[in-house]
Structures are given as structure tokens and as C-alpha cells.
Amino acid sequence: MVAGGAFPIGTAAAHAGKESLDRPQVVKVVVGDDGRALYFSRAPVPFLRDQADAAERDGLVRQHIGIYAYTAKALARWVALPVHALERIERLEQLRPLAAGMPIGVSVVPEPLSGGIDTEDDLRRANERWPDLITERE
User: Fold this and answer.
1) Does domain 9-111 bear CATH number 3.40.630.30?
2) Which value, in Å, is the radius of gyration of the alpha carbons in the chain?
3) Are the C-beta atoms of residues 6 and 105 closer than 8 Å to each other?
4) Are strands 104-109 and 9-15 parallel, antiparallel or unpaired?
């Protein structure tokens, strides 16, 4: 099992600022006390119902980092599942196993990784940096 034997699927998330809440290209994850993913969304989650709870909510905002670890059995089950309506609506593949009851463990790291390519602007910036990255590797 992944993550010390607790979950058949593992992924990562980072503490994120409240500014990421309104960006649908940033996938958010709500994590339970046991490290289990409760939900992934492009929407602002956790939702702030009362402004008095803003500071507490802000401390719970997590940005999903799109990497996975899984057992062979979990991967085989995942890919055999039909596409779930939640996956289709949010366009998030991790909702398929989650909706089927497959637990996903989340390792939380201090800050998001830089360099994700989620938008045309991200791609443009990555292409601009490409020559520098090649030089760094040589």
C-alpha cells in the first residue's frame, strides 16, 4: 500500500493562498484529519459560508499537485472503472476512484511547486524558459 500502507493511491498537495481559490485551473483538494482526500475541485473549496471563518478556511486551502503513487492493484481497478459524472463535470480524473470508494492519501508539502503548465500563459512562460533549462542541464 502507498503512504506507509494506509492508502492504495497517494498524491500530493501544497498549502496554497486564498488567491488560488478563484482560479479554476488550480485544482484544490480537501483533506481529512487522517490524510485522506475528501474531494478535489476546481471550485473554491472549502467554501466560506461565514466571513468570520476566513482565517480558519485560509489555513485549509490545499493545491493539488498532479502526481500519483499507487499499487498495481489500485491502478488496475482505477482504469477499469467507468468515467464518473463528477470526473466528467470537473474534468478531474482523480474523482473516478474517489467516487468509487477508493481512498486517496494526500501528502501535504509546505508550498506549491513552480512550473506547472495549466494555461496558455503557463505554456508561453515555459517555452520562454526552455533554453535556460537546457543550459542548466548541460
Assistant:
1) no
2) 17
3) yes
4) parallel
Q: What is the pTM of this model?
A: 0.77
Cβ atoms of residues 11 and 64 within 8 Å:
yes
Give the separation between CA 78 and CA 94, rounded to whole angstroms.
9
Beta strands 28-31 and 37-41, pairing class:
antiparallel
Distance set, CA 37 to CA 27, 30, 45, 82, 129 (Å): 13, 6, 12, 20, 33
Outline where DSSP puts E strands in 27-61. 28-31, 37-41
pLDDT at 115: 58
User: What value does the mean pLDDT take over residues 114-127?
Assistant: 74
Contact (Cβ atoms closer than 8 angstroms) between residue 65 and residue 113: yes
Closest CA to 41 of 84, 90, 83: 90
Whether the predicted pLDDT of 135 surpasses 70: no
Measure the CA dihedral 70/71/75/76, to 10°.
180
Residue listed under C-alpha cell 463528477:
86
Centre a 10 Å sphere on the Cβ of residue 127 and count the other Cβ atoms it contains.
10
> Which residue ranges make up each domain of the chain?
9-111
Q: Which residues contact 18 (CB under 8 A, 6 or more apart)?
A: 54, 57, 58, 61
